[in-house]
Each structure stands twice: as C-alpha cells, then as structure tokens.
Amino acid sequence: MGDAARLRDDSGYPERTYAIGELADEFGLTLRSIRHYEDEGLLSPGREGTVRVYDRRDRARLALICRGKRLGFSLTEIKEFLSLYDTDGAQVGQMRYLRRMARERIAALRRQLADVQQTLTELTDIDDQITRHLRRQGADDATNEEGSRS
After folding, report:
1. Out of 18, 63, 125, 144, which residue is the most buried by the measure of CB atoms under 10 Å away?
2. Selection from 21, 16, 19, 73 nearest residue 48 by Cα
3. What is the value of pTM for the model shown?
4. d(CA 65, CA 144)
5. What's the Cα-to-Cα distance from 88 to each of 37, 74, 94, 102, rounded to whole Å?
6. pLDDT digit string (tens) for 78-119?
7. ∠87-92-93 over CA atoms, to 5°?
8. CA end-to-end span of the chain, whole Å?
9. Distances (CA, A) of 17 to 38, 43, 90, 145
10. How large is the C-alpha radius of gyration of the chain?
C-alpha cells in the first residue's frame, strides 16, 4: 500500500498522523529508541519526503511495545506478538502466544520474588545480629548510619 493510501482512514479522509517527536514525548522515549524499533521491524512509518510519518497503527504498536518492555518482554517476543496480530484477524494465535509468554513471565517473577524475599530475610537477620553485637559492646550507633532502619 502506498503512503498516500496508507494515510487515509476507512472513509477516505486523511488519517491523524504523528511526528516522531510527538510520539517520543507522549511515550517518554528518545527519538533514537523509536528509530531503533523501526530498524528492528516493529514500526513501519510512512514517509513524506525524508520525514517519518506515523499513523494510528504505528502509535498503537508503539504503545504495545512500551507495555511489553515494561512487562519485561524482549523485543524479539514483542515482534512475534505483533507479527501474529498482522496475520491473524481473529487474534487467536496472538492471544495464545501472549498467554504463554505471560505465564512464563509470571513464573520467572515469582522465582525472583522468592529470591528477593529470601535475601531480605537473610539481610534482616544479619542486621539484627550486628545490632545486638553492637549493643553488647556499648557501640550501638547504628541508628545514625545511612541506610539503617527507622
């Protein structure tokens, strides 16, 4: 589809378009990040001369990219998800893929959470032991140290 046709909505009227700077501001990204997503095949803006012109589809894809990154998915995983959207109008394959990836991410985060909880328990125990030791030595000035508990 040519850029002129691509930039029209279903009624034939010109579609709302976005400059790269507008999208960068809206999503809190750098221009370089958006260009990188384009280089990776995640976005495919139209052109008006040498200027990139993003349409509502690009904006929606960018929102999904940002959400996917925020949720910890790789660009490869996001690209696969987006490609399934393009080939499956009913979105069954896309939803199955996303569910599988979400479940894997949930399992990984649960493992990380357990590791963090164990580390916090161990560090709290160490802090308690040191505090007791310092009190026995008459040197309990831990409440004045940076990073100590309130």
Report:
1. 18
2. 19
3. 0.69
4. 45
5. 22, 21, 7, 19
6. 999 888 877 767 888 888 999 999 999 999 999 999 999 999
7. 60
8. 63
9. 16, 14, 26, 55
10. 25
CATH architecture of 1-73: Orthogonal Bundle (1.10)
Where do we find the tokens 């308690």?
128
Length of the chain, please? 150
State the number of CA atoms in the 13 A half-sphere of 103 facing the CB.
6
Q: Where are the domains of the chain?
A: 1-73
Packing angle, helices 56-70 and 31-39, rounded to 10: 100
- Report CA 5 to chain centroid distance, whole Å: 31
Structure tokens at 8: 């029209």
pLDDT digits (tens, 9 = 90+) for 59-79: 999 999 999 999 999 999 999
**Residue showing tokens 């802090």:** 127
